[in-house]
Design a protein that fits this description.
Elements: H1 2-12, H2 18-21, H3 32-38, H4 42-57, E1 60-61, E2 80-84, H5 109-122, H6 132-136, E3 139-143, E4 148-149, H7 161-175, E5 181-185, H8 187-196, E6 203-206, H9 214-217, H10 223-233
Parallel strand pairs: 2-3, 2-5, 5-6
Antiparallel strand pairs: 1-4
Length: 243
């Protein structure tokens, strides 16, 4: 309780302005036009107010500075778009990349199943929880809703994040100069992409890696070898998943 009170005190003393972190020099210049057009729209102005207030008054994940971590990757370096739902909602888990957690954190069940399938597929035993090195190679793992209140999954699903992320996917489709593929785990991600009308040849899909659904079609789906087979056929450098 004392730790939580101290954390809330630190939050109260901070300034949270969502549009300011979009000016961070870590964000790749390839997103400049997208950011410039989105932050002027009414939905984003309302979204920003909600997010700023939430971070000011509650414990929200991921860390404010990491909300747009995935924009550190150049748009043309994206090789696979993997869509999650919303960030992990427990302390110190969410990193700004879907499914990934820091190495010093216990492996969440869905991520544990992802690693099981990785071993089954490519005989690779993952020795750390972070997907950052995958991300740096083009594994673009994003959540549809980018923020969440502690212990309240989907608590920010009505903030307007779905408009931002939907527009982001459309922007990638319109501006990406190379071939890339979608990795869709679960019905939520699959319904989203159905609405954007992506060619089935560019989609790898199965049930979600969650323990509640992984037995349906996730285990044995071999998504990692399928990704690299697509990249090989497209004459694009493969992703080294052994890291």
């Amino acid at each position: 309780m004392l730790v939580k009170l101290m954390l809330m005190k630190n939050i109260i003393n901070k300034q949270f302005i969502l549009s300011q972190i979009l000016k961070d020099n870590k964000i790749d210049v390839s997103w400049k036009n997208f950011i410039g057009q989105e932050i002027k729209k009414d939905y984003f102005i309302n979204l920003e107010k909600k997010v700023n207030k939430a971070y000011k008054n509650n414990i929200i994940y991921p860390q404010f500075k990491n909300i747009f971590k995935y924009l550190e990757l150049n748009i043309n370096d994206i090789k696979v778009v993997c869509i999650g739902q919303d960030p992990y909602h427990k302390a110190n888990q969410a990193t700004g990349l879907a499914f990934s957690v820091n190495d010093n954190i216990a492996t969440p069940p869905s991520l544990r199943n992802i690693f099981k399938e990785l071993e089954n597929d490519l005989n690779i035993v993952k020795t750390n929880n972070s997907l950052d090195l995958w991300f740096r190679q083009g594994f673009f793992a994003i959540n549809w809703f980018l923020t969440v209140e502690e212990s309240k999954p989907l608590s920010h699903k009505d903030f307007g994040w779905e408009i931002w992320t939907n527009n982001l996917i459309k922007y990638i489709e319109a501006n990406h100069k190379n071939k890339f593929i979608y990795l869709l785990w679960g019905s939520f991600a699959q319904k989203i992409i159905n609405n954007i009308h992506i060619n089935d040849e560019r989609i790898i899909k199965s049930s979600h890696p969650s323990p509640l659904s992984s037995y349906r079609s996730f285990f044995g789906s071999k998504p990692f070898s399928k990704i690299n087979n697509f990249l090989k056929c497209s004459k694009i450098k493969l992703i080294n998943f052994d890291c």
